[in-house]
């Protein structure tokens, strides 16, 4: 049966910019209605969020700290997306990454933080990738669905971490299920310490640190990998068509494994920020759900590293702004989660709700012109 | 003058900027077979979808038996006495014939009375129209020809007086097609009106009373079939003179390039699809494999192209090819100078969302010419694409366009350009002109023949007998995983091949 010629329905800028912006506005309107419904002032709330997250270097420091986490996990999900796999295991991979970082920092004496960071990156990537390897193998060889296996591996990761902290890494005499504090030598410079020498004063208390630069570097590397290398070409081709990949001599097993290993490594890298950069020791639940936020970040960023970068900053803002809101108003902590959920809902799940009318509008405009 | 069974007045329909139907008027006399012919994308299926209530026309009126009728959905179409037999059957595979027939037309909540009634009606219909089917047979266990009859019966059971058939012979053997046409004539004699949509000129000439030609959404002509000929219809379809027959010099056949011995292929479900075949393709010849879709030809191509494993022995220029494990994948095949134009360009041959220039590297992305250090040399790739686009006259000549935005013919030209320009020793071609417009068919056929004239071997798989006849230097017929026989094109005819395709050895009989 013949079908009408398909056309690109919208200009690219509308796809990349307009749709996320409209989705955000819709989420904001709905959030405002909820805030009104519980008897608070939405204008005041927005004001608090913006000042809290962006109004000071302290706020920025937190926003960027969260954004760093989300960049890593967002990239992790994005790379798997390109191979048409849904890696929901970012959370577990990041936890294991934390284990890798903690081992590197605790058990090796480091002369300088820069060397420690390099080794910690390697440790985080290896542990994160290893945690992704088992679901990847099961998917590639046995056809076990990656969504199911990666979710299950999140729980196993939490249990493994729990065991390691309680039975292996907990310092003697401590009642706290956490590792010992990392030595001073592996302390990563915060933005305050990085920016002070060039005369910019940045809040001392904020946790944003040098790993932000690692995250930005990771965005560039992922971009080059996906769009400039042969491996990226194969990953994208496989993601678009598995039979096509077979035809072109691209091994589905190989690509599934490699894409998931890269994805797991990126998720693991997050630990250099939250474990090494912020907590400076390994604690239970150190990931705080960042692995899941990565899914929303990747969706909103259209699996493009630049989009992931922007979306990560947006979610960093929501996290920090939300915390401020809970601190200064009687808006309950749970409502912040609702607002974040609305953003995820509109930018991720309800994408088509905005897309379809927009596509129609653009088609009508084009027709009007023709 | 009799009242027309169907009259369409000024039907227009557009999808976004694409005008699929433009001011179409057509009048179909009752008790006739009316053919609608046109290239892919001419708007035939859109027009019929409007008539069947799938789409709503932007403009225009539908008159059924002299009364203006609104058809907002398929229920309304059925109520107006219109039945449709789709190209891809809409049957529930694990239901029986009877269950499929009453599906959606049950009389009440309980099935038993409906089934009993349907059984009785079915018997009447069977005798009236000679449409014999076993009502208790399960759909997945009967042949496609039989399944099609079930579709026709489904329409008749819903009291259709007007029957629309969309490309009905695509999956049939010539013998089955002949049988279908006999049924259609019988239906016509009983007063039914039939609309036959096809892109095959031969069917129009054989089966119809009147034929309407569509081109680019417009109705270009309606003529009595007895007053026209295939050449004339082809010109009306394409809008210019076309060569229906490929011009080619006799083959200069050389040494064997591909030798297949006792090849077996089993699919994912464990069903043996190729059951021990022996074939040889020589340099400078085109070996055509004829057969109804699903008789193992696809699997044969896929094994040769490195897409699935097999057992047996294959030699290329005398040296053996791996059939499973290392060295049996598509990349290894390409390294051994086997090029492959796959049967399904949209799922296999192209990545539809990739730019044309990315697709030009597809399968050859390891070529050092496309690399620069650790990166792909996209500039080199784009330059190569521009050259191929020009040489193969791909339109629009824009390498940045995504593959999905090209027409079927131009997509195929991209694939053919990529594969033939590699100058392979052996070219595997599956359904090279499926869904391709006549103009591009001509061009693609010429390219395949040109490769053969350079002394290369070509293995062609096609379900279109016309294509097999016009390209092949030798024809092998596949049925149920076996080679039923080999023939030379000038020593055989469609009838004999048709019998072989149905599994009947013509010589033995």
Q: What does it look like?
A:
The complex is a heterodimer of chains A (370) and B (509). Chain A is mainly α and 370 residues long. Chain A has one domain (42-48, 56-352): ABC transporter involved in vitamin B12 uptake, BtuC (Orthogonal Bundle). Helices cover 74% and strands 0% of the residues of chain A. Chain A has 16 helices and no strands. The radius of gyration of chain A is 22 Å and the shape is globular. Chain A starts with 11 loop residues before the first helix and ends with a helix. The model of chain A is unreliable at 1-7 (pLDDT under 50). Chain B is built from 17 helices and 22 strands. Chain B is globular. Chain B has helices spanning 44-51, 74-79, 97-102, 111-129, 144-157, 174-189, 201-207, 230-238, 297-304, 330-335, 345-349, 356-359, 378-391, 408-420, 438-453, 465-471, 494-501; strands at 6-15, 18-28, 33-38, 59-64, 67-69, 82-85, 162-166, 193-198, 210-215, 218-224, 256-266, 272-282, 286-290, 311-316, 319-320, 338-341, 371-372, 375-376, 426-430, 457-461, 474-479, 482-487. By secondary structure, chain B is of the alpha/beta class. The model of chain B has no long low-confidence stretch (mean pLDDT 90). Chain B is 33% helix and 25% strand. Chain B has 2 domains: 6-238, Rossmann fold; 256-501, 3-Layer(aba) Sandwich (Rossmann fold). In chain B, strand 4 and strand 5 (67-69) form a beta hairpin. Classes of the chains: A mainly alpha (370), B alpha/beta (509). The A-B interface holds A 1-9, 224, 228-230, 233-234, 236-237, 240-241, 243-244, 246-251, 363, 366-367, 370 and B 14-18, 20, 40-46, 86-88, 166-167, 305-308, 329-334, 340, 342, 344, 347-354, 358, 361-363, 365-366, 371, 374-376, 378, 402, 404-405, 407, 435. Chain B: This is Ribose import ATP-binding protein RbsA. Chain B: Keywords: ATP-binding, Cell membrane, Hydrolase, Membrane, Nucleotide-binding, Repeat, Sugar transport, Translocase, Transport. Chain B: It is an enzyme of class 3 (hydrolase).
